UniProtKB/TrEMBL annotation:
Substrate binds at residues 16, 38, 65-74, 129, 191, 200, 220-221. The keyword Protease does not apply. It comes from Tumebacillus lipolyticus. This is Orotidine 5'-phosphate decarboxylase. Residues 10-236 form the Orotidine 5'-phosphate decarboxylase domain. The gene is pyrF.
Amino acid sequence: MRANLRPEEKIFVALDYDNMDDALRMAERLGDTIKTMKVGLQLFFKSGPEILHRLHEMGFQVFMDCKFHDIPNTVAGASDSVTAHGVYMFNVHCAGGLEMMKRAKEAAIKRAEASGIQVPKLIGVTQLTSTSQAMLNEEIGIAGDVQRSVLHYAKLAQQAGLDGVVASGHEIAAIREACGDQFLTVIPGIRPAWAASDDQKRIMTPAAALAAGAHYLVIGRAITHADDPKAAALRILEEVR
């Protein structure tokens, strides 16, 4: 599957803005360099579904990154609603359990078929890239190391019928071994060598992540905070090629 993706299809740009105008200006500045924009909690709750439709009108695919985590019935309803907006991909927290993930996938398929649209890719969030070993054990209360937790959730997501998982670049090889090469890996915490790491702990360069077998890379500040975002995106695309 990775071989079939063009470089501009492998990168999702995180539009982490607090208003729609700035987000759309950034998308416009990037033009046709990148195909998919990621809309997270802050932007979606500020702009509502309109941001999804505006990006679609501009020709972009949308990865809706709102990480659903609730009882199965509630998450199934949320999955139905977001699928109706025609997003390319959305995610749920694997910690919600097997039944929740199954219901989310079933609802997405049912809504897509009823609406005559493509079924969105549904991705499970394993552990956030801000999660350190100490945080996992001492605050969240999960024993063992981070990779063990990530693999457990990845296998659970695959059992539930999800298309893949969100994980850090350091877990890609282990996920591929456990779940196979066709099970998608969406990797945040991607930083080119020339960009700062900010608040994320488990980070990796684009080239290293792709060499490890990543399907998609989520990149935000390295592009959106650059003096010339389009030049930064093109520089990263060259690295991806």
